[in-house]
């Protein structure tokens, strides 16, 4: 069975340091026999302000972070899914794109998804984050695509709260859903595992969620607990401590086939419209 590596670490505003950590993850994953590595949302950087984010954001063709990952992925023939920031197409430098890119084992960027649901939250006594002020929301889903572990659908963090998008990707053929994330501590403690398991159960798919963890700056702290959940809703791998870490999951396609055969979900689109 193909082996997937799922990582968590603490991005800062120092891109070179973040790159070094991610390159080390690639080497570790390859040494353990993994065929794919999943890295968190915003692996390139987490800034302390929208202005700083704009100043750090670079196109993938010139970003030392992305170029460094591509080189290392090619060197170790390891596919890498990673969350990054990209400039918007209009070039106005007012907002950035929050995207997930897929780098294949030849070091090529073959897929890209721009986060559709941006994260606006104002929790009493907790964090206040208005991602919509600095991040341009995406306008479409990326169709599932073939990978060394199966047909994969790309989603990001706050998308986790919207089952419609995961169900859409399932109907399009996905057997694996990914949620690279930077969940806050309060929302992570309350909802992270529950939502990941729910998405796995209702889509009867593998769910893989790399995660940011720990204190990025004085304004931001992430929950961590990167994990993989099988189509029955069982957590099969998890980074349980609040530190840089990596866990591994064997992606068994037979579990998908068995669960979907034994508990067929035949939706009644004659009764309710397709979402």
From TrEMBL:
Limits of the CN hydrolase domain: 1-253
Domain of life: Eukaryota
Keyword Transmembrane annotated: no
GO MF, one example: hydrolase activity, acting on carbon-nitrogen (but not peptide) bonds, in linear amides
Pfam families: CN_hydrolase
Keywords: Hydrolase
Keyword Transport carried by entry: no
Protein name: CN hydrolase domain-containing protein
Native species: Tuber aestivum (summer truffle)
